[in-house]
Amino acid sequence: MLTKNFNQDPLENFFGNIRSYGSRNIAPNTMDFEGAFKALLISNYNDPHSKNANCAEDLNVCLQTLDFYLEEKVNDTVVPEDNVIHINSDILSFDEPQNNDAGQSNYVCGWVLKKTLTNVIKGCQICKKTLLEKELN
Fold first, then answer.
1. Domain ranges (residues) in the chain
2. Does residue 82 sit in helix, strand or coil?
3. What would the 3-class secondary structure string for 30-67 be?
4. Which residues contact 33 (CB under 8 A, 6 or more apart)?
5. Largest CB tally within 10 Å, which of 31, 46, 98, 134?
6. What is the pLDDT along the chain (137 residues), one digit of tens a residue?
7. How many CB atoms sit inside 10 A of residue 117's CB?
């Protein structure tokens, strides 16, 4: 078992990069944090290790950088007609599942009633009788 993977160093590296992103904001608010997170995620800025960090280098890397996708030329490929799969329309038509939640509703209502009887009404017999009447007055 690689116990090195169960430490906080990758997390410490991540938050160190968030704090040092942009203008060295050591206490970012939620909007600053979200912006820095998106920027680091897109630009793969989270890859380098902080030189003065008191943690092991995080050796995780992305498979491809954003530059790879921006610089790669995309060729328009035409799919030959013999590679197209035709699906029978009978397979695509199906019945909607029945939504039968009567048991769930009964369970939740019973739980709420039990909690109401024990915690709210407690010892008031008039309140209990009024709540448990079958017919409304």
1. 8-71, 103-132
2. helix
3. HHHHHHHHHHHHHHCCCCCCCCCCCCCCCCCCCCCCHH
4. 18
5. 46
6. 566 666 777 777 778 878 877 677 778 788 888 888 887 777 654 455 555 566 666 666 666 666 666 676 767 666 667 767 777 776 666 666 666 666 777 788 888 888 887 877 777 888 778 777 777 66
7. 14
Q: Is 46 exposed, middle or buried (0-12, 13-18, 19+ CB in 10 A)?
A: buried
Round to whole Å and give the CA distance between 38 and 43. 8
| Report field, pTM of the whole predicted structure over 0.85 | no
Tell me which amino acid residue 6 is.
F
**How far is Cα 36 from Cα 42, in angstroms, rounded to an integer?**
10
Question: Are 55 and 12 spatial neighbours (Cβ–Cβ below 8 Å)?
Answer: yes
